[in-house]
Design brief:
Growth Hormone, Chain: A
Length: 443
């Protein structure tokens, strides 16, 4: 059960310490992920293993999230984070041993990726719920922005550092660096204490009914339709945004080379960083957060439409940078809305369910995008294709890469429609007034 001392008070200092440790760990994991991707390509010379690696990276999280959320609410969240990071490090060591002995194969990578994803299913909801424990209510949006910033920093730094390290110290050396970051992250957790969880329910009321515990997040959020519908909206946003992002490589490489792809990826990273810094410094609006979220999602859709509209590298980079700049803002404000309206002692289960729902469609976005572009849109957008010979071809141009561009425009339009439908739903539009903030979070 939760055992932190009641004398511990909320403090941004505690958050900063843990946040920095998690940032370092994220960088380490990103280095290994990048190096493993290079290693898989060297071993297989095929794109299919990348898709399967991404699938195995998402599936265990979705399957385990609700069970993990139950444990997060019943036990000490700091200890869960320590255990999850430690177990993830053990799996990494196992992969290192296989590599050292010359036994590592691609299917080993899939298994280790799946096991690491399973540890994230416990670690991420524990940290998301713990933020409300350690951060004063008025600083929650800023803390969420810093969380988005860590992802942005990792997206910028990881390709650069991993590329250099892989050349000089190889995959084995990169994994050693990753292990060092695990140790650092765990060390930061050992030097802090989390405040006591504010109890609003009896933690043992459903302890003997595993099914009720695992479905608690769903049943709780269904009491507040606005919150529930907002989470469903983000599931579709993630689907369309990730489907669009999956075509960046094919689209850019048909127009340029690897250097151009690096420029686009750097622009995306800078967009994420600027957005996360902006929402961290700004702290978000005190009211009408939903309106800002929906406007941000509309701009995300417009960015994808812009990226697909013109076959120019700088336009693709500008469109994606503009779109992803909105992601930290929408994510931070959405997280803040949930954190200030869901009691601390049930946040593990509700956040785990929320994370499962928002991610449940993501693996399919990668599986659908490739066949849709290769088999349908690219042939149709050739000069002799059905769409290429019509007004769409006249507007967007024809040839290689225009099918990917059209796919981006379609997913961007879907994001716009999703945002508009969300605004038209009165339960989502009036969420902030129908579901008031909790006064218990002020302490």
């Amino acid at each position: 059960m939760q055992t932190e001392t009641a004398s511990t008070t909320k403090s941004m200092r505690t958050f900063y310490i843990v946040w920095f440790g998690q940032l370092v760990s994220t960088l380490g994991s990103g280095l290994t992920g990048f190096a493993i991707a290079v290693w898989i390509f060297e071993q297989t010379q095929s794109a299919t293993p990348f898709i399967l690696t991404g699938f195995f990276d998402h599936l265990p999280y979705v399957l385990l999230a609700t069970y993990a959320g139950t444990l997060v609410d019943r036990y000490n969240r700091r200890n869960i984070m320590i255990i999850a990071d430690t177990v993830a490090a053990i799996f990494t060591i196992f992969g290192l041993l296989l590599l050292t002995t010359g036994s590592l194969e691609v299917w080993h990578v899939w298994v280790i990726t799946a096991l690491a994803s399973a540890t994230r299913a416990f670690q991420e909801p524990a940290w998301s719920a713990a933020i409300t424990q350690v951060v004063p209510k008025e600083e929650l949006t800023r803390a969420a922005g810093l969380g988005q910033m860590s992802q942005a920093i990792a997206s910028i730094a990881t390709p650069i550092l991993a590329g250099l390290l892989y050349v000089f110290i190889g995959l084995r050396g990169v994994i050693f660096v990753d292990l060092a970051t695990f140790v650092f992250a765990v060390a930061t957790l050992f030097v802090v204490r989390f405040p006591q969880v504010t109890r609003t329910t009896d933690p043992g009321a459903e302890a003997n009914n595993a099914w009720q515990q695992m479905t608690f997040g769903y049943r709780y959020l269904r009491k507040f339709p606005g919150l529930f519908y907002l989470i469903v909206i983000f599931a579709f946003v993630n689907f369309f945004a990730n489907a669009g992002a999956s075509v960046i490589g094919p689209l850019v490489l048909t127009l340029g080379d690897a250097q151009d792809l690096g420029i686009v990826q750097m622009a995306i990273g800078l967009g994420l960083l600027i957005g996360s810094i902006g929402v961290s410094v700004w702290g978000g609006p005190k009211t009408n957060k939903l309106r800002v979220i929906l406007i941000a999602l509309c701009i995300l859709g417009l960015g994808q439409i812009l990226s697909g509209s013109v076959a120019r590298i700088w336009v693709i980079a500008l469109g994606f940078a503009l779109g992803v700049l909105m992601i930290p803002i929408a994510a931070a404000l959405s997280q803040s809305i949930q954190q200030t309206r869901i009691p601390e002692d049930v946040q593990g289960r509700t956040f785990a369910f929320s994370g499962m729902i928002t991610r449940i469609l993501m693996p399919f976005s990668f599986l659908i995008a490739g066949p849709m572009i290769d088999r349908v849109l690219e042939p149709a957008m050739q000069s002799t294709g059905r769409l290429g010979m019509g007004w769409i071809g006249d507007l967007l141009g024809v040839g290689d890469g225009r099918g990917a561009g059209l796919f981006l425009i379609l997913t961007g339009c879907c994001l716009l429609v999703t945002s508009i439908l969300a605004y038209l739903n009165p339960r989502i539009r009036n969420l902030e007034t129908e579901v008031p903030e909790l006064s218990s979070l002020d302490n």
